[in-house]
């Protein structure tokens, strides 16, 4: 993502499977979903990126939000 290449579900699945196995076996991690308006997220992302505090370029935000499937 740092190079401006979006990740897809095929990229995420192996990482998520490993994360879930290790997290549930050790109970060390929790998954938190932060929701927000795309404009608000973009402004925050841009602010953090300008300070060198975030690696994902703003150009990927739209595609990543489109792929997000949050369960109720």
Automatic annotation (TrEMBL):
Pathway: Carbohydrate acid metabolism; D-gluconate degradation. Its EC number is 2.7.1.12. Keywords: ATP-binding, Kinase, Nucleotide-binding, Transferase. InterPro entries: P-loop_NTPase, Therm_gnt_kin. It catalyses: D-gluconate + ATP = 6-phospho-D-gluconate + ADP + H(+). PANTHER family: GLUCONOKINASE-RELATED. Belongs to the gluconokinase GntK/GntV family. This is gluconokinase. The lineage of its organism: Eukaryota, Viridiplantae, Streptophyta, Embryophyta, Tracheophyta.
